[in-house]
């Protein structure tokens, strides 16, 4: 966050109104101004402060600085310390040391170049004023001979040495927290990757030729151009999909037509006969596009994963609608009535309880590794200050955390959603290159495979929705419970009582037998299906959590925790490397001057909220005039500002349940020398 960026902190609902604005940049050192501290007490605190100053010095080294390769390892360790300092050290203790730090000047610091640890040593004077006896050196610290003073100084020394160990090794401590939740099963970390807009038959349907146990394509499946006229032209499925330069229809209305062939949704089973008809209405040749699928050799990573681990051939999108509502179900088992983006909800954040909240309540950890903007920030609770440090830049931290065995219990990895020349999109959303998505999945798998946490890890890969592409398996239309009783907006008034189209999903772990195909779930009800709500439902059971289900939907959804208990020991033959993706499926590079997709516009509206621009009159159309390249820069800048503002508010002592609200930049920025941004609570 640039120096001088101004922001406000607003209290969330349920918090007491303080009744006045406070300058939380200042902290009182003593609980009462009338308390006199003895000289020995003051001197002891000075030694404590030196330990704190060192810790702050280490943390500040990583902010706003470009590092050379020689500095990379030390910088990464500083980043680890910074995260642990703010996550694991109690807020009250951090505030106490911060106050002391402001009272006492830091001693000069020198770098110990002979040490293998990435920290500096403090230059400590060899004598202490007021000490009547000759000091005794201890690890470079003069220790008084007087018993009372020696006790105080040794306490300060112990505290300082703790900070050295903490910064050097990133010790995972949990002061002041509940006893750590015990996970009984073999899986301690579950990693979730949600790709974009492809159906099962489009990605994996043609794998049936070599894997007959998978419910895929035979080549005889077809749609008529007119679903109501059997004499109209018939479009058969094909395996010649390479690159999709357009974005097939996947709105609620379009999906209804694809599933039922008309507006009549009473048919059961669903005929799945309107894909070609709906696509033909969008443009010439689109009917054949949506009926095509990839040959297995063109998606080598998925082919390898399906053969080496498990594939679901009955996993459905949670709602027959577009991206964002389905993504909400992955983490909260409801879209809170959303069928598409709504300005009010995007600005204020979706309020439903999430699996992230349940993990926090149980004392379990989570982390979100994003690449340009985390879509999970649509959830209001994730914008709170206590969750700011849960967001990590994928490029700099995912491989490091995996290598160190520091991945949290629940990991969400978000892709690059904007297709730029320097960093092309890798989310598989049309018209993005599927080869980029294959390489991304390959990178995630190989990183986890080489991690010391591998034998305790499960990787789930799924797609948010089918993106308008054909699938032959009927969508479940009965026995699906509404998650929370909320009815969708006009004109459809959808009750959220049927699922979306089938999507590709993989379950990867050394506890999964090779070549597993997971069909229907075994409960919890006769009508239960695998869908996105299966994720929080399984996490609850996998981590033996005491919290309630989030909604009626995850209480109903099928779960897959039983597949980790079919073996007594983890496999040792899991491939360390996946096949190389040697062929780009796109005939040209990214087009940064392209207009935004509906999903990208939603992300820009989220970015404008994070950046404070949502109060401007241009907000409703803020993404309409942007190109993909411009949107990428805008989104990355907004996320960086929001997260840095949150970290600054935490350092200043803000309530961890508060939410940072940025102010719009308008036409000017605060002066660069303004290093004390205004922080307000209301």
UniProtKB/TrEMBL annotation:
One of its GO terms (biological process) is phospholipid catabolic process. Keywords: Hydrolase, Secreted, Signal. Residues 1-44, 575-594 are annotated as: Disordered. Coiled coil: none annotated. InterPro entries: Alkaline_phosphatase_core_sf, Phosphoesterase. Its main location: secreted. Belongs to the bacterial phospholipase C family. This is Non-specific phospholipase C1. It comes from Dendrobium chrysotoxum.
């Amino acid at each position: 966050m640039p120096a001088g960026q101004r922001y406000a902190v607003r209290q969330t609902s349920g918090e007491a109104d303080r009744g006045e604005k406070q300058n939380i940049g200042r902290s009182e050192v003593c609980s009462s101004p009338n308390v006199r501290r003895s000289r020995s007490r003051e001197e002891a605190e000075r030694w404590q402060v030196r330990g704190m100053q060192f810790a702050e010095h280490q943390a500040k080294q990583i902010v706003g600085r470009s590092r050379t390769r020689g500095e990379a390892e030390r910088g990464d360790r500083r980043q680890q310390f910074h995260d642990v300092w703010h996550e694991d050290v109690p807020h009250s203790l951090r505030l106490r040391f911060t106050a002391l730090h402001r009272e006492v000047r830091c001693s000069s610091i020198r770098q110990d170049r002979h040490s293998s640890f990435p920290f500096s040593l403090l230059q400590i004077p060899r004598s202490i004023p007021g000490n009547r006896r000759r000091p005794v050196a201890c690890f470079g610290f003069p220790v008084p001979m007087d018993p009372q003073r020696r006790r105080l100084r040794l306490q300060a020394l112990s505290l300082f040495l703790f900070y050295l160990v903490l910064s050097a090794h990133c010790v995972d401590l949990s002061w002041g927290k509940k006893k750590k939740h015990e996970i009984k099963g073999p899986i301690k970390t579950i990693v979730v990757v949600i790709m974009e807009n492809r159906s099962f038959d489009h990605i994996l349907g043609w794998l049936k030729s070599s894997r007959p146990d998978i419910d895929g394509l035979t080549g005889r499946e077809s749609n008529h151009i007119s679903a109501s006229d059997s004499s109209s032209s018939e479009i058969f499925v094909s395996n010649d999909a390479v690159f999709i330069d357009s974005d097939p229809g996947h709105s609620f209305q379009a999906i209804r037509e694809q599933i039922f062939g008309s507006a009549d949704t009473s048919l059961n089973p669903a005929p799945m006969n309107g894909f070609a008809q709906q696509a033909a209405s969008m443009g010439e040749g689109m009917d054949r596009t949506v009926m095509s699928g990839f040959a297995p050799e063109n998606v080598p990573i998925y082919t390898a994963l399906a053969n080496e681990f498990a594939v679901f051939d009955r996993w459905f999108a949670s709602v027959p609608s577009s991206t964002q509502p389905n993504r909400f179900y992955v983490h909260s088992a409801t879209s809170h009535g959303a069928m598409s983006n709504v300005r009010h909800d995007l600005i204020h954040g979706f309020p439903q309880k999430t699996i992230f909240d349940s993990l926090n309540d149980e004392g379990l950890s989570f982390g979100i590794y994003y690449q340009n903007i985390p879509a999970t920030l649509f959830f209001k609770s994730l914008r709170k200050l206590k969750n700011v440090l849960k967001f990590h830049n994928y490029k700099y931290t995912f491989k490091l955390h995996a290598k160190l065995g520091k991945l949290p219990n629940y990991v969400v990895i978000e892709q690059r959603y904007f297709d730029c020349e320097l960093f092309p999109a890798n989310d598989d959303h049309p018209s993005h290159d599927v080869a980029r998505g294959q390489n991304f999945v390959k990178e995630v798998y190989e990183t986890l495979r080489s991690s010391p946490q591998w034998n305790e890890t499960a990787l789930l890969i799924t797609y948010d929705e089918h993106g308008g592409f054909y699938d032959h398996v009927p969508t479940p239309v009965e026995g699906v419970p509404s998650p929370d009783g909320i009815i969708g907006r006009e004109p459809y008034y959808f009750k959220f009582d049927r699922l979306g189209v089938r999507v590709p999903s993989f379950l990867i772990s050394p506890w999964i037998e090779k070549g597993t195909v997971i069909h229907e779930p075994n409960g919890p009800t006769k009508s239960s299906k695998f869908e996105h709500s299966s994720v929080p439902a399984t996490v609850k059971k996998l981590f033996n959590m005491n919290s309630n289900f989030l909604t009626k939907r995850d209480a109903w959804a099928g779960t897959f925790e039983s597949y980790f208990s079919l073996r007594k020991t983890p496999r040792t033959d899991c491939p360390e490397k996946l096949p190389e993706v040697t062929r780009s499926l796109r005939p040209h590079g990214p087009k940064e001057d392209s207009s935004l997709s509906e999903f990208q516009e939603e992300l820009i509206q989220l970015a404008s909220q994070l950046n404070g621009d949502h109060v401007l009159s241009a907000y409703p159309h803020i993404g309409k005039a942007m190109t993909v390249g411009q949107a990428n820069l805008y989104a990355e800048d907004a996320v960086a500002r929001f997260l840095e503002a949150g970290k600054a508010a935490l350092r200043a002592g803000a309530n961890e349940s508060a939410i940072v609200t940025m102010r719009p930049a308008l036409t000017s920025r605060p002066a660069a020398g303004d290093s004390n941004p205004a922080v307000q609570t209301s």
